[in-house]
Design brief:
Layout lengths: L12 H12 L3 H8 L3 H9 L6 H10 L6 E2 L5 E2 L21 E3 L18 E3 L3 H11 L14 H26 L14 H6 L20
Antiparallel strand pairs: 1-2, 3-4
Helix pairs in contact: 1-3, 1-4, 2-3
Length: 217
Amino acid sequence: MSASDLPATPFDVSGAMRRIRRLADLSQRELADRLAVSKSLIAAAESGAGGLDTRVLARAAALAGLRLSLLDGAGNQIDGMSPDAARDLSGRRFPAHLDTLHSDDRWWRYEHRFDRPRPWFTFDRVREGRDAGRRTGGTPEDHHVARPGDSPQERKEQRRREARRRAEEGRRRRLQAAGWQRWDGFVCSCPARCDELDDWSGKPVHAEGCPCLCDLA
């Protein structure tokens, strides 16, 4: 049996409030005054006749040197989701039950509005897509937190640099295979257009007017 299969213990608001008052050594009226709420609200919560706003309960617990937390079925503390998690262009948080992804990760599921800036993150609106990703990569603990390098422009530039690095490495191997054992000092000066034309499956392909023509292999 996993922790998620264990029965949840009902939260006893009445007992918790009375414990808080006992530890804080406060009467109902004194506690109500400290929390800026009515005495009747405290009395109703203690008697079980009414509920209590979680924020009020958290402030009451703090007066007794306590804090609220989430526990799983095995009693392990579970942290809330990060307050710094990625948001959309309107500053809204993404749906908690779905998984965030970089907006260029699955472009076929992302409908970009060209009259607006491209967002850094989006999410898969279809649960089947989310579940497929979780089967292969596991369930992310939280949503992404935006970090340097996460913008679409920076990720595109990183992919371009990586493509050029691979192209350079491929040319180096081809030159060495042709007998050019001394690669030191040679600097490829092919323009980016060569990388776009070359699929690296054979001899290097060069754009018209390439000043390098490093296809000695």
